[in-house]
Design brief:
By secondary structure, this protein is an alpha/beta fold. It has 7 helices and 10 strands.
Length: 246
């Protein structure tokens, strides 16, 4: 069966003395560089999310071992640390921005064991887009959407899309559910808002059987060396839960 691997990153850089909690938020820069080299060694073809969606729809062929790279929250260190490495390898990537916190910090982390970190401002997001990367929506407020009322869910989907499209001057087609929190209402709201894809935290490879608005991803954590990432790519290809919507 055709499979598309989608990896989830957050921050990339040097994090000495960071607490071990929330390890999925951090990827040390040397390990990130090694992981980017690894993909070519293992024969993976890093493609953009647009191409992955088209391939999963059957609209165009996918390369052998397709791999998509995604980065949640739009931290400043994506621009300063991750982007140069990605450009060196010619890799596309999708960065999900929280529209209501542009140029601020990851305030949702306060008091939870992780220090709030700077998020890209409007000029930096446009710079990332000009470098060839895709900007997607990570909602307006970074809430657990499945725990919200339907009206709030719809607003988080629609307002974030509108704000980012106005800021970027380009359509925003991809959504990422904060914390992976989603239910049928969220998926239907994403569809109504006009998103082409929605990514979750379900650990599996994406296949044509998946709903494009609830695609699985595999998180890369602080402790993952190249062997750990290789294992994640080669294993965990079957989701624990069936898609919410067919």
């Amino acid at each position: 069966m055709m499979r598309v691997q989608i990896l989830m990153y957050h921050r990339v850089g040097d994090f000495p003395g960071r607490v071990k909690a929330h390890g999925a938020l951090y990827c040390h820069l040397p390990r990130f560089r090694a992981q980017m080299r690894l993909f070519k060694l293992l024969g993976y073809s890093v493609i953009g999310l647009d191409d992955a969606v088209a391939g999963l729809r059957g609209e165009q062929p996918l390369p052998s071992r397709p791999l998509v790279l995604t980065f949640d929250d739009a931290y400043v260190d994506f621009l300063t640390h991750a982007a140069p490495v990605l450009k060196e390898h010619g890799y596309p990537a999708t960065v999900y921005a929280v529209s209501g916190l542009i140029g601020q910090t990851s305030s949702w982390d306060a008091g939870k064991g992780s220090e709030p970190a700077p998020l890209m401002n409007a000029a930096q997001l446009r710079e990332v887009q000009d470098l060839g990367f895709t900007i997607g929506s990570h909602s307006r407020s970074h809430l657990r959407l499945a725990e919200q009322g339907t009206e709030r869910i719809v607003d988080e989907m629609n307002s974030s899309k509108a704000v980012l499209e106005d800021l970027l001057g380009r359509r925003v087609d991809h959504f990422c559910y904060p914390y992976g929190s989603h239910d049928l209402r969220c998926v239907e709201a994403a569809a109504a808002a006009g998103y082409f894809s929605g990514t979750t935290c379900e650990r599996a490879a994406a296949t044509p059987e998946d709903d494009l608005l609830s695609l699985p991803r595999k998180a890369v954590s602080r402790g993952d060396d190249v062997f750990g990432v290789a294992w994640k790519l080669l294993a965990k290809n079957t989701p624990k839960h069936p898609p919410i919507r067919r």
